[in-house]
Each structure stands twice: as structure tokens, then as C-alpha cells.
Fold this protein.
Amino acid sequence: MNLLEKLDASAAARKALLPDGVGAFGIPIEEVYSATEARIGDRRVLLLGTNNYLGLTFAPECIRAAHEAIDKEGTGTTGSRMANGSYFGHRSLEREFADFYQCDSAIVFTTGYQANLGTISGLVGPGDTVLIDGDSHASIYDGCVLSGADIIRFKHNDTIDMEKRLRRLGDRVETTLIIAEGIYSMLGDQAPLADIVKLKNAYGCILLLDEAHSLGVLGETGQGLVETTGLLKEVDFITGTFSKSLCSIGGYCVSNHPQLEQLRYVSHPYIFTASPSPATIASTRAALELLRKGSHLRKQLWQNCTQLYTQLKEVGYLLGPHPGPVIAAIVDTPRQALLLWQNLLEHNIYVNLILPPAAPEGKSLVRCSVNAAHTTEQIKYVGDTFCKLRSLVC
Amino acid sequence: MTENNYNEIMKLLCDRLEGVSNSNVQITSETNIISQLSIDSIKLLNLIMEIEDTFDISIPINALTDVQTVRELADLVYKIKSAS
């Protein structure tokens, strides 16, 4: 099989899951009206498949900051952080992230994906080991591969299984990095952080926690799982993204370890790419300020999450173990998931469709992402529509 | 580790692969795990965790880049088990 034939085989596998004409992946959004509504084709749809958890995509403070940055500094930095791409805004945002997490330092990356790639591949290398949750995001897997370290998986959120694998590593635990996530993107469940911290301390490892989905969502000030568990000081490195609660694009890593600064000199995903644009940095700084003061947004978000989670649970949908902004209906087959997804769209509701192998345990997911800007009526309409369509996935 | 141990590993792998395969292909040592058995990446990684538990060893995922056939997987497990 030549290179192009391999891609044909991959296309055939995709077509087997999604018949021609069903554009569930990469669906064209023609117009965006607000944090909760857009146009797909000729439909005005409710957006229940975005990561806009605090609903800040149209926050006037962020839009104004982005406009001013473009006017003052242009559309792009056209260079690496290592060269000409570290403006006052980039350095300020790093100070603000360090302050937000009460940490000594922070590094801003161009995307959240690169934050994991750059941090992981900067921390470990050939001869070291990474111990990762089986449901880790692709950016974690890819960062581990890029590092050249030995990659060992433990069963999702299972610290008994994790300890078994730590024990097997013997002396190699000294150079082992454990990686977990605040909220997992597929089912919306949270890492058992207290138990993970106990193990990392017992075995003398380093712990990295990815708060991509939990930043702005968990904790009084929105730090994430480290805040709700009170374990901020126990986590060695925290990574996250600007593309969810902060409504732009980019990523970060914060730490109290002074060695974090060295990543600027060894991490290829940090060095060999252009830095975030001035507008991106400016809107992110404004959004971080809103996030810190956004306890009312978190309150509304959790009210919406609980409303939808409870309604779907009551009507018999199989869901993840925790209510939260990621609410995934777990269904047995790709065909059922596709049918439910299509019917929701026909009822003017856009959600995410996730098919194997991306979904855990060979199942398929119809995943909702709730945000703080959804009204009670919008959430009720979504819940009622799911109820109406329940028979499609029985 | 002996030849008998190697054969045990091979038999166990064939049995486990048969359990997760979506294909009717008769599994032999030369069977290509991905292309012939239609096993997706996550199923394969979960299978590796089971094999780790069975033999009480650590099999780094990155070591699988050199593995295409059942024989190559058996060789890898045998090598790691022998060194442990």
C-alpha cells in the first residue's frame, strides 16, 4: 500500500462510519450571532457544542482590548517568542497567570495543544517515563511521543491501577512524570487529584495537571481542580488553554519550579512557531480578569449544567459520573449516535458527535457543552428535545 | 525465560487478539495486528495494559512503533519479561 492508498483506506473507514453527505465533522458555521446561537445552513441553531464555558466570546471588554491591540501593534508578531515575538502583552499575561495561580512563573504558548507538547517534551526525554491516564487528550499523547520518553498508561481515573504501574517502574519513578486532567473532555469527569497527589509524593514523581476544561469552571476564582481540592501547591506543573473559558487561542504552563524558565530554551513547540497575535493576547488578558471576578458566571454555568444533567439523567440517558459543563450521552453504536446528532440538528441544536476510537470503551458520544450564557429556557428546550428523541438510542 | 515461555506468550497474544478483533482472519504469528485484524488504536492500547498485568511488566507505548505482526509483539513482550 503506497502513501496515498493509506489515506484512501483511512477515508474508507471514515465513510463506513459517516455516509456521504453527513458532515458531522467540521460542520460549516455560516454566521455566529452570540455566545449561544449561530447559523448552520439555513438554520438558526443553539450552540451546545462549543467550549465557551463562561460565555465570554462577545464580552465587550475582550473585543475592545483586541481592537485596541490591533490598532496599536498590528495583526501579528511575525516571530517566535525566542526572537521578536515577546511583546509587553505576552510578558504581562505571563505575570498575570503566575499571579492568578500564586506561582513563581508562567509561560505562554501559541496554542493549548502546544502548551502540552512544549511542557511535556521539555520536562522529559529519552530514558525518562511518563505515566498518563488512559483517557488523556491527544495533545498529551503527542507531547509524550515528541519527548521520546517511555509512555505507560493507567486505567482512566483508577489510582489503584496507577499505583500498580508505578510500583513496576522500580527506580525509574525518580524520572517519571505523572499526567492527569482537571476535567476530562469526553465524559466531563474529574481526576481523583487527592489520591494522585498522595501517590506522586509517596513515589517521588513530578505531577503535571492539565486544567484545559476546568479553568474558569472549578473553584471560587476559577483556578480549576487545584482550587476545589485545595491542592494547588502539590501540583508541580499546571497547563491549560485560552481557547475554552478565555475564548481566544493559546496556552500556558505555570509552576513554582524555577526550572520552568528553562523550557523557553529547550522546548521546540515554544521556540519554533510565531507567538500569539497582539489581539489574542489582549483579549485573553481581559478575559482572565473577567474569569477571576466571574463567580456569578460560574454560578450560572453550574446552574445550567445541573439543570441539563438532571433532566437527561431522569429520562434515562447514560451520562458521565459528574455533572459539569461537559455532558455526554453515551450510546452503544455510531449509528445511534449519528441518528441522535442529526435529529438534534433538525431541532436546531448543535452538539458534538464523537465516534470510536475517540470515544472511550468503544462507545459513541453525543456531547453537550453548556455555558454560562445559555438561558434557562434554552437549556430546557435542549433537555426537552433530548427527552423527545430518547427512543432513538434505546 | 525459555522457548516454552515464548510459546505461552504467543498463544496468549493470539487468544487475546482474537477476543478484540473485528475480523474473521485466522490469527498466526505473521498476522498484521492493525491492517488484518481491524483493531483500532485504543483497543490495542487497552490490550497492552492487560498484557502488562498478565506478565507484571511495563510495555512503553512508544515501543509499539516497531510492532506490526503478532510475532513482533511476542518478541517485544518476551524481551521485556526476560529483562525484568
Observations:
- Residues 61-292 of chain A form a domain with the Aspartate Aminotransferase; domain 2 fold (CATH 3.40.640.10).
- Chain A has a mean pLDDT of 96.
